[in-house]
Amino acid sequence: MSHDITLHQWEISPFCQKVARSLRHKGLNYRTIDYNGLRGAKVMRLSKVGKVPVLDIDEQRIQDSTRIARWLDEHYPEPLLYPADTSQRAQAELWEDFADELLYWYEVHFRVSDPEAMKIVVDLSCEGRPAFERVGAKTVLAFGLRQQLKFQGLGKMSPNDIRDEFLRILDRIEIALEATSWLAGDAMSIADISVGSQLLEIDRTSGPIRSELWKRPRLAALLKEVKAL
Fold first, then answer.
1. Of 69, 160, 185, 215, which sits 20 to 30 A from 44 (CA to CA)?
2. Is Phosphoprotein a UniProt keyword of this protein (predicted)?
3. Equal fold, 5-75 vs 86-228
């Protein structure tokens, strides 16, 4: 059975990558529309929230990566994103929240702190715009991201403390993978996809810290599985 599926995305958003990997996990074919550069102004028209990811599927429009994942499990249950076992499902949802609400801010910090990563953001944001807008765009984007980090709390910590805490998080994930090599249950779930999507975006764009992701063998194996989706 064929499906008409469009993923509206910001190319380097870990939440959009989470949805893309969820679709591939279920073997669903889809097309993407990237809202880089001038096209970004159209995001506000996609939903009341005004953010991506947004998924158009079977004549329905769904916004927010978690709502999309739950909808996919309800309508295309094989293979499940959320384990059928209630205890394992609770674990998966906790890991998903951890990735979306905490781990994401480390990704933002490393992106705004690394010139190479910020160049990627500026390049995508200025796609189709005059070259002279780049300097202003970089200033505005960096300021906005730093303000968000301060409001969240991470931006009030020193860079060394942030790095140390991030490494402790990686150590905790490594320990959590001891039992089954997966974060919740005995198969890949939304827990692995959510955590993996955040960390793989750090790996893709964020300077020296990326090497730390691959020093822990169980975590490295998990990231390879998620990346292969």
1. 69
2. no
3. no
Is the pLDDT at 177 greater than 60, yes or no?
A: yes
pLDDT greater than 80 at residue 138 = no
Q: CA–CA separation, 40 vs 37, rounded Å?
A: 6
Q: What are phi and psi of 31, to 5 degrees?
A: -120, 160
Residue 131: half-sphere exposure toward Cβ, Cα within 13 Å: 0
3-state SS, 139-189, equals HHHHHHHHHHHHHHCHHHCCHHHHHHHHHHHHHHHHHHCCCCCCCCCCCCC
This prediction's pTM: 0.92
**Rounded-to-integer distance, Cα 5 and Cα 11, Å:** 17
Distance set, CA 190 to CA 89, 94, 115 (Å): 9, 10, 31
Domains of the chain by residue range: 5-75, 86-228
Q: Does the structure show a pLDDT above 90 at 228? A: yes
CATH code reported for the domain at 5-75 = 3.40.30.10
Give domain 86-228's CATH architecture: Up-down Bundle (1.20)
Contact (Cβ atoms closer than 8 angstroms) between residue 125 and residue 40 = yes
Cis peptide before 130 (omega within 30 of 0): no
Distance, CA of 57 to CA of 54 (rounded, Å): 10
